[in-house]
């Protein structure tokens, strides 16, 4: 099997695993992936999904963003604040999947409007019909019956 262009990722994962003093099997168990699959990732034979990378990063207690960059999922030049904003929205347990998707679409439309769109990776790119042109003070999605206040 020919090696994919993810050798850098595999080498990095192996270094991180060894510095965490974990065996391949221990990391596979902690990340919830199979031992052979993780081995293939480390050898550059498989390109893992963002979800698998997130699980591995969590098990290694390292930044998933770093793994995304090394795997070619994120551009190394991408604005760090954009990644952090997206991660914060996706990590919020009080939002539904649909609410997260809509928030990211609105965020992306604002970035595009300001000349910072990043739709080349196929991520959350709103269709023209979904763009937000509401006047200031108006909120999109008022029909949503979700909670409006945060616990405090």
Lay out the secondary structure.
Blueprint: H1 7-19, H2 24-31, H3 35-42, H4 50-60, H5 64-71, H6 80-91, H7 97-113
Helix pairs in contact: 2-3, 2-4, 4-5
Descriptive account of the structure:
With 152 residues, the chain is mostly helical. Helices cover 51% and strands 0% of the residues. It contains seven helices and no strands. The protein has helices spanning 7-19, 24-31, 35-42, 50-60, 64-71, 80-91, 97-113. The longest helix has 17 residues, at 97-113. Residues 1-5 and 119-149 have low confidence and may be disordered.
Give the radius of gyration: 19 Å
Low-confidence stretches: 1-5, 119-149
Helix fraction bin: 40-55%
**Distance between the amino and carboxyl termini:** 55 Å
Which class of secondary structure composition applies to the elements? mainly alpha
Count of beta strands? 0
Q: Strand content of the residues, in percent? A: under 5%
Main sheet attributes: strand count, strand direction, barrel closure: none
Write down the secondary-structure element order.
Answer: HHHHHHH
The geometry reads as elongated
SS field, number of helical segments = 7
Average predicted local confidence, pLDDT? 76
Q: Can you tag this structure with a few keywords?
A:
single chain; 152 residues; mainly alpha
